Amino acid sequence: MVVTHRRGTAPHPIILVLCILLALAAPVTAATTELHVVRHAADGVTVLEETTVDYTWLEQNLPVQGDGRTHYYHQGPVFEGDPWNPEEDVNVIEKDMGAVKGTDLADICDLVGGMREGETVRIRAADGMSREFPYRNVYEPEPRQGPMVITWYKADEGYVPDYYSGMRLVFFADTSSNPDGLHAFGVWDMHECFDSDYWYFFQPGLPTTTGLSVQYVSDVIIYSDEEPTGSIHVNSTPSGAAVFIDDEETGDVTPCTLSGIELGSYSVRVEKEGFIPSDEEWVNVVANAVAEVEFNLIPETESGGGSSSGDGGGGGSRNGSIAITSVPMNASIYLDGNATEFRTDATLEDVPPGEHTIELVLPGYWNITRTVTVEKAECTLLDLIFENSTTGEATTKTGRIAVFSVPTNASIYLDGKDTGSRTNATLQAVPVGEHTIELVLPGYWNITRTVTVAEAERSTIDVILSPSGGKNETNTTTGNDGTAATHPTPAQKNPLEAFIATILNILTGIFPFFGTGEDLPTTPGPESTPDPGKDSATPVLTSTPMLPVPTPDDTRSIKNHSGGIYVTSHPPGMTIVVDNRRQIWQTPRIVYGLREGLHSIRVEKSESDRSGEDSSFQFETVQTWVYPDTITPVHLDGVTPSYKKTIRIDSETCRGEKFTMSGSFPAATIPDDAEIEGAKSWVTVSRDGAYHSFAIPYGIGAGRTFWIEPGDADTVPISINSNPEDAAVFIDGFPTGKCTPCRVEGLSPGQHRILVSKPGYITAEDVITIPEGAKTGGAVTCTLREYIDGDLLVESTIPDARIYLYGRYTGEKTPHTFTGMSIGTYEVRVVTENDSKTIEDVLVSPGETTRCLVTLKEDNS
Predict the structure, then answer these.
(1) CA atoms in the 13 A half-sphere facing the CB of 270
(2) What gap in Å lies between CA 216 and CA 567, rounded to an integer?
(3) Helix (H) or strand (E) holding 190
(4) Secondary structure of 112-135 as H, E, C letters
(5) Each residue of 658-690: pLDDT tens digit?
(6) In CATH, what number is assigned to the domain containing residue 200?
(7) Residues 75 and 215 in one domain
(8) Collapsing DSSP states into helix, strand and coil, what is residue 61?
């Protein structure tokens, strides 16, 4: 058909047809007839409870609000005069919600466990529009606000779907604040009843309550503070073994299921009399699931488990082991010409008795080959030193110093120089001879030890730091040579404490025995553990409650349970929301002190709730995994639309193995559904210590299954370095357990995501492609960018109190130091079984350790 159009005339039939077509094409949102009610855990992802009900069920099973005759009103914007209109006499009658009936939102929330103080609920419409409200307005409304009612009936229209704007949120206000005796929820009522964060504005400066009346309600979403939990099922052969979680005895014996465990990774081991203690197994606890762990225990021999000579006294035929150490470390170990996938220092277990060849390979050094004889139930020791391949000379004679302290996170000084390491840590490649180790931790007396390092051996220092009783201008420790070593710490606020500390410091310099008793003439040797009584500080009068003096029994696991994220957005300057809790910070920003595990992250346009304007930026909520002591990058793009689809990952040979999508955690288990985005997605399967990458075809359809089977292609190593060094390395989201510089074995051809992270520095990551037939993955070197940070030390008068940041449990217990905290103020909460307390506006300053000491009540029962 050809249509001509002359100037000055209009083809009226054509225009009419076009208008009809446009009207038919326009999207129409219909009334809703049922509600999906869900309560999420504190991570904003895990579903704790959910149900779906329709309007007939609501009417028949829950109290009905409204009589179908009384009209209820909201108030539109007031364009002239005071926009808050306390008189409530402008633009009210025009906003008649009708003579409606419905169900109280509080009763609906109770269907899935209800809400608690501090929690919020989001009312979402079928078209995506939503509004969020706090506990108080839902469960404790003032009369001038009235109950929040999801209405499903309107007198002149009937029930939904004939009630075309239903289901609809309407506030059933009383008549106390309206001059005409109307049941009106006006803007001044909102001002008086709502926190300012929840006020709604039609435009900046023009409040309105009609914008709170969500139409076509389809979802009621509760964001609770309840932490998600999972379970661990532990079994052993034989049964009856005591179960330990993170080195703490649970009181249970195998087989058993430990429930109510918060998400994260845990070490599990078992012990049974007459059997060799098991190695620890790490399990990852996920929400509403049971992690399985199994142990096969080996009977002890009469000689004590094969540690002595002989055949074990009739304990049965057993293989032996080879313990291999090297200087430097991280050499690849080959047993009888076959790669073991272990690196020094390591112990090869279950090696058959007889003669074997061990070869160590380390880039830049000559390979070392040795022949060893393995005896039954015996451990053969092999300690080797590499020679530099360019000079032909042996490496400098060095050893190692392992430094442990209670509490941890003390700065380690070697011969007066800051090593950059914190306890607990091992100093590598320390020249042989005598050295001085000094530990510095704000709020504790410095402590100095002298240690002798032997070639290719490890010396150990294990000390308990004593509280100083106050924060002095300088924390002084008299060394073994009689000199005083000083390091700046935060200034002391109490003049009396400062005066007493100064006098004590002077006396300590003159009479060492007047001091804290930390460095007596009989200083423990490098391999000894000091007696607690000789490392206890003399109490100083102070207005601050004294912390319990640590004892050897107070020693805790050195594993941290918290890390952080680096949130960026396009465009920047967006307000960050972590686990549905709006933060005061904007992108880009480091958020540190989050518990290991899954978190939901989103950003919002700043002041969007107060302007009432719809943002042109569309940000999605993303789920990201937080690793301990690591900063995970999170980027949200509000401009470029994303196209996602869900497929299924399956395999005949890899069922039960873990996999990640496009190199990012969390990991799933084959078979499982997975979401892909973009044209270059890939799957990585972690199997037998290798990382197998599989490219996903771009044209694969949603809902289809992608089958993966590892081929015969060889895996290759990759060298990873960073500046500064000692950064944790991750391959395709999987922690390698290695720190830079290092070499990671087992990368297949294909794409891989390399991530390098170190507290106090912004994480670096890159995606590399290893070609088919490559002999090596090459080398990756990255420079980590330092950000301005400080440390936060949280202590409590009752130890082992749970620490909360950002409104969520961090996984850490007092005392604990959070390193790499962004500068700013924080709200810190600590909780015990008998008490809890929140400290607001805790200021973290650049380069300093902020000490937050919380006084808790003892159990008086």
Answers:
(1) 25
(2) 34
(3) helix 187-193
(4) HCCCCCCCEEEEEECCCCEEEEEH
(5) 899 998 887 888 888 888 887 789 999 988 889
(6) 3.90.420
(7) yes
(8) helix
| CB contact at 8 A, 692 and 684 | yes
Instruction: Give the pLDDT confidence of 465-520 residue by residue, as tens digits.
Output: 777 654 333 333 333 333 333 333 333 334 444 444 444 444 433 333 333 333 33
Pseudo-torsion of CA 71, 76, 82, 86, nearest 10°? 20
Give the sign of the dihedral formed by CA 414, CA 416, CA 422, CA 423: positive
3-state secondary structure of 373: strand
Judge if 144 and 183 occupy the same domain.
yes
Q: Does an H or E element contain 282, and which?
A: strand 281-285
Phi, psi at 37, each rounded to 5°: -110, 125
Q: Is residue 418 part of a domain?
A: yes
CA-nearest of 417, 409, 468 to 791 is 409
- Euclidean distance between CA atoms 698 and 692, whole angstroms: 19
Contact 783, 722 (CB under 8 A): yes
Residue 350 covered by a domain: no
Question: For the chain, how many residues are written?
Answer: 861
Tell me the two tokens of residue 37: 């009610």
d(CA 150, CA 762): 46
What tokens does 458 get? Answer: 């490890």
Please give the distance of CA 715 from its chain centroid, rounded to a whole number.
31
75 pLDDT band, cuts 50/70/90, is: very high
Q: Which of 279, 296, 313 is the last residue of a domain?
A: 296
The string of DSSP letters for 326-356 reads EESS--EEEETTEEEEEESSEEEEEEPSEEE
DSSP annotation string for 792-810: EEEEESSSS-EEEETTEEE
| Side-by-side strand order, sheet with 417-422 | 417-422, 411-414, 433-440, 447-453
Distance of CA 693 to the CA centre of its chain: 26
Contact indicator for 63, 172 with CB cutoff of 8 Å: no
Provide DSSP, 744-781.
Answer: EEEEPSEEEEEEEE-TTEE-EEEEEEEPTT-S---EEE
pLDDT band at residue 213 using 50, 70 and 90 as cut-offs: very high
Do 42 and 132 share a structural domain? yes
Q: Rounded to the nearest 5°, which phi and psi values hold at 514?
A: -80, -15
| Range name among 166-175, 185-194, 408-417 with the lowest pLDDT average | 408-417
Number of domains in the chain: 5
Given the structure tokens 């270059």, which residue do they identify?
Answer: 680
Same domain, 468 and 580: no
Sequence-separated (6 or more) residues with CB below 8 Å from residue 737: none
- Domain range for 175 is 34-223
3 state SS of 103: strand
Domain co-membership, 706 together with 634: yes
Helix (H, G, I), strand (E, B) or coil at 662: coil
Same domain, 587 and 734: yes
Tell me the DSSP string of 668-707: EESSEEEEEESS--EEEEEETTEEEEEEPPTTPPTT-EEE
- In this prediction, residue 16 carries a pLDDT of 52
The residue from 296, 320, 347 where one domain ends is: 296
Q: Indicate whether 178 and 259 sit together in one domain.
A: no
Q: Domain for residue 53, yes or no?
A: yes
What would the two tokens of residue 205 be? 């400066």
- Please give the backbone phi and psi of residue 832, each rounded to the nearest 5 degrees, phi first: -120, 180
With respect to residue 323, please indicate whether it lies within any of the assigned structural domains. Answer: no
Q: Give the pair of three-digit tokens for residue 112.
A: 């899935």
Q: Which residues, in sequence order, are bridge partners of residue 411?
A: 422, 440
Strand partners, 581: 578
Which pLDDT score, from 0 to 100, does residue 706 have? Answer: 92
Judge if 456 and 524 occupy the same domain: yes
Domain CATH for 807: 2.60.40.1120
Q: What is the pLDDT of residue 54?
A: 96
Asked if the bond preceding 238 is cis, omega within 30° of 0, the reply is yes
Q: What is the pLDDT of residues 14-73, one digit of tens each?
A: 455 555 544 444 445 689 999 999 999 887 778 889 999 999 999 999 999 999 999 999
